[in-house]
Amino acid sequence: MYAISNKRVSPHEREGVQQLAPQPRTILETGLADNFLGDLVCKHLYDAGVLDMVQLVARLALTGAVLEEVLTFLRKDRRVEVLGQAGGQALRYGLTERGRNSAREALARSGYIGAAPYPVSAYRTLLKLQTIHHGRISAHDMHSSFSSMVLAPSMLDQLGVALNSGRAIMIYGPAGTGKTYVSSRLIRLFGEAIWVPHAIAINDAVIEIFDPQVHKRLDDGEQQNGLLLNEGIDRRLLCCERPIVITGGELTMEQLDVRYDPFMRQYQAPLQLKASNGLLIIDDLGRQRMTPGELLNRWIVPMEERHDFLNLGGGRHCELPFDMILVFSTNLNPLELADEAFLRRIGYKLQFGYLKPGEYERIWIQETQRLGIHYDPMLLSYVLRELYDAENMPLVPCHPRDLLNMACDRQRYLEGSGPLTAQELEWAWRNYFVQLDFLG
Fold first, then answer.
1. CA 369 to CA 399: how far, in whole Å?
2. Are 161 and 169 in contact (CB under 8 A)?
3. Which domains does the chain have, with CATH numbers?
4. Superkingdom of the source (predicted)?
5. Model-level pTM?
6. Residues whose CB is less than 8 angstroms from the CB of residue 122 and which lie 6 or more positions away in sequence, other chains included
7. Can you tell me the distance from the alpha carbon of 263 to that of 39, in angstroms, rounded to the nearest whole number?
8. Strand 278-282 to strand 324-330: parallel, antiparallel, or no bridges (unpaired)?
9. Which of 14, 19, 161, 306 is the most buried (most CB within 10 A)?
């Protein structure tokens, strides 16, 4: 959904995480119980049949030193046996009959087979270290990042102040005025890398955090030897861009809490947990299956207290930092969605409106350049006068892109060429907007 950028990890970023999450050298330093790691190794061996140390390191994201300790424990427990060397190189490991029974029992309790999870206590500290609420965005940053967009300077300044505040933001206004387009690009202002765990462990429950659809990995420039490395950042953490999660009318309340899949016997992370240290946009507020009140009430405590309580089922709860920029976007009247008491909790309400003719012209020119077609000021004057003014239609930011694309579509269909004509733009207009002539 979003392209990987050319961001790199700064020494300062690496140093902070290095101090918090050094490479574990023993089972104790992983923060996980030996039985837990033993069960996870057995599940991997049950899944693969036979694995050597290099393969185990890659699968569990732990160093050879830690895995040697786990394998020694499993061999003493008669669950794992050495099956000899592969091609005269690394030793291979497989399960005994006792080990296979143990693996099946472990899979019955939890279907997770992946990298060793990161302990939730350390994850809380990691989220706070990597907070997105550092308040370092300047007016120069805002205007430079959005220099190619047609957006009023005053609106950019409002957005910048809102981002620095750390409070939730509501963006409202008519459809097509650029609310989603602008809010989805706010993440570009946060260029720091962050570290995201493959999964976290809350007692015996494992919740996958890393999602390749959300988290874009970065090359941190470090070539690690997993068998020998005693230094460096914990391999259970992946270097990523700050995430952005956008959800709209498809959002359900179930997606905002930990979900347990009884068939896979795995826990799924809620959307806000995947968006941690990043940006979460609730688009089309008021179009969800639940009422706006139900959805907004879900965020009252997280917004005010900066932490969230996740329900793991069976009376189990877990508290985690609520560290993200939360943006609500809607084309409905905010006063119809929530009462004033709730709206006060949202620090900033920003209204997106229609364009002025000069702003519309700038977007029109940008779109002609993008499409590689000739810009004709007389044609634009015709569109504004004979179409917009004649039908009393407001100037909306998305219109130039859509109208020009549709006119080009027709030209290609008719195998035409050359500059667009007024007739082609009028045809696009009639097909773009709903025509109500049949009512008369």
1. 15
2. no
3. 33-115 (1.10.10.10), 122-132+149-351 (3.40.50.300), 357-439 (1.10.8)
4. Bacteria
5. 0.86
6. 20, 21, 31
7. 19
8. parallel
9. 14
